[in-house]
Amino acid sequence: MIVVTDARCTEYSKAGHPERPQRVSRTVEKLKGQTELPITWADPAAVPDEVILRAHNPRLLAALKASAGDFDGDTPAHPNIHDHARRSVGAALTALKSAKSGKAAFSLIRPPGHHATKERMMGFCYLNSMAISVLEALNIGYARVAVFDFDVHHGNGTEDILRGQPHCAFHSVHQHPAYPGTGTQSFENCYNYPVAPESPRERYREACSKALDQIAKFKPDLVAVSAGFDAYKGDPLCQQKMEAEDYHWLGESVRKLGMPTYSLMEGGYSNALPDLIFAYMKGLQGA
Ligand SMILES: [Zn+2]
User: Fold this and answer.
1) What is the mean pLDDT of residues 53-65?
2) What's the pLDDT at 101?
3) Choice among 56, 115, 153, 174 that is catalytic
4) Distance (Å) from CA 82 to ligand 1 centroid
5) Contact 253/259 with Cβ under 8 angstroms?
6) Cα 114 to averaged position of ligand 1 atoms, centre (Å)
7) Ligand 1 centre and the CA of 277: distance in Å?
């Protein structure tokens, strides 16, 4: 397993904000303290502006560079947030590169990205690392790229950027109603699987199975996963009931697609996050 991270991603925080540095630092600690799963650590790649601008409007990138004020109530203009967001994209590009070499890769970095649209930073997200990496994958020669987003929130930003884009398909399993309120219907190359609040965990798994079946039908040559761990039963932001073993099953299910794959951490705000990520990685690795 290749894990891409950068210690600098723990340098920003805001009191009371659930997207906190410990999400990464405690997970790194957990991964370094175990011997079950061999891990190769990797650094984020450099990211040229033009790679970002395939996915985002130049106005968004200019606003991020200026960071003149908070982007919305959830998405503060932390000091150096432009550098942090760009490193998060770079980690996605390293993960993509690792997938190309045949090794499963996990990008363990913050900020997350799947809510950032072409035009707008929102929901703890500044640059959409997933969409940017998918457009780069198509640019370097992949023919069909499937995105699987199992974060409990709809990946509205990834959908906004990838809708109608040839040679890729977006699949999102999420709670509805919940933030950001979108993702009730499927259209074009976007497949949405909403799950009601307080559903039994079997229901969330069932929706994931449907998305995975659809992905298999699409016959991708690369599967990119927006791995959010906030459908966990103990997560403070939503009302789903997934367990650690369900994340192991998700990893296993992605592995069974039999395609090159990489995963990017999106949400996940409970103290169990390191265990959930570890369970998912073991599933991915067949351990
Ligand atoms: Zn989320």
Assistant:
1) 98
2) 87
3) 115
4) 21
5) no
6) 9
7) 14
Per-residue pLDDT tens over the stretch 166-202: 999 999 999 999 999 999 999 999 999 999 999 999 9
pTM of the model: 0.98
Provide the pLDDT confidence category of residue 287 given band limits of 50, 70 and 90: confident
Model confidence at 61: pLDDT above 90: yes
Q: What is the pLDDT of residues 76-132, one digit of tens each?
A: 999 999 999 999 999 999 999 999 888 899 999 999 999 999 999 999 999 999 999
Task: Specify the CATH superfamily of domain 2-285.
Answer: Histone deacetylase domain (3.40.800.20)
Q: What is the dihedral of CA 180, 61, 73, 194, to 10 degrees?
A: 10
Instruction: List the chain domain ranges.
Output: 2-285
The alpha carbon of 200 and the centre of ligand 1 are apart by a number of angstroms equal to 18
**SS in 3 state form for the chain?**
CEEECCHHHHCCCCCCCCCCCHHHHHHHHHHHCCCCCCCEEECCCCCCHHHHCCCCCHHHHHHHHHCCCCCECCECCCCCHHHHHHHHHHHHHHHHHHHHCCCCEEECCCCCCCCCCCCCCECCECCCHHHHHHHHHHHCCCCCEEEEECCCCCCHHHHHHHCCCCCEEEEEEEECCCCCCCCCCCECCEEEEEECCCCCHHHHHHHHHHHHHHHHHHCCCEEEEEECCCCECCCCCCCCCECHHHHHHHHHHHHHCCCCEEEEECCCCCCCHHHHHHHHHHHHHCC
Residue 141 CA to ligand 1 center (angstroms) comes to 30
In the block, residue with structure tokens 């351990």: 287
Report how far ligand 1's centroid is from the alpha carbon of 126 (Å): 14
Whether 78 is catalytic: no
Given this model, what pLDDT does residue 100 score?
Answer: 87
